[in-house]
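The records we work with from here on pair a chain with its fold. Each token is a code from a learned vocabulary of local backbone shapes. A record is reproduced here so that you can trace the correspondence yourselves:

_____
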Amino acid sequence: METVNEKSIKEAGELVNKARKEMGKRIVGQADLVDGLMMGIIASGHVLVEGVPGLAKTLAVRTLADITSAMFKRIQFTPDLLPADLTGTMIYRQQTGEFVPRKGPVFSNVLLADEINRAPAKVQSALLEAMAEGQVTIGEQTYPLPEPFFVMATQNPIEQEGTYRLPEAQLDRFLIKVKVDYPSPAEELAMLERMVNDPDIPLRRVLDREKVKQLREAAETVKAEEGIRRYIVSLVAASRVKDRRKLPFTRYIEYGASPRATLAIYRCARVQALFEGRSFVLPEDVKAVAPMALRHRMVLSYEAEAEQMDADAVIAGLLAAVSVP
């Protein structure tokens, strides 16, 4: 006879698979992207999606909004965008002779910040309060954002003209960073056939506030034993080691990950276990989510750039160096 906890884990797994299947009607392949977006919703975190143009980044976020009974807003970031275009501003109402707030698109449940690196730092930073505290200050008044609230941001890694690198403080607010790669030839053919035969595919809304709450509560019941928690802390702490005699590969890291990375790995590892239908976290769950949680939180050194080492290669070195409980 299954326990209440096992039943909630099972029901959550069925709900996740139902959402995956519904998104799969439009998104061919890209399992990491779909799971990353789902992980952001369940773990109550924001997601940064990086990939070259044409890899269905924006479509995936739109599709997630379409299967969710939530208010969706999209902002196309451009160099001339102003902070008030995101958060809103105070406008003068002539009839009453007073200033009233006009709320911006940030007041939504799912906010798509499309090509976020096309706007300057002051615009990107306008999202900091919203992402960190779930509120926005307009004039002298602070307004809470709708619950749930998620920022799904996309950026293009190859284009340099007219783009602005995200500040480290902004990057750290994203729970995970998902890298999107090219589809396989078979997936690309399936995508082509689907668009030729049925370009406008209707979707069912399989998620609402109550079901999102159900998924979150199920994730909260997933246990991470002390050994797993120590492993997570050791992994993040290893990124800050400056003694090359202890960890030679740390010469590739200029600045290690913050304690927020520890919390991110912990939250995501529990969701990963939920995806696998387990009520407990394994080291494999930590290894699976570590690249997503760490790749945008570490600043690599000049040596890494000289030797063409990217963040994922450095994280692989961390995972190989830190002993598994």
Observations:
- The chain has a mean pLDDT of 83.
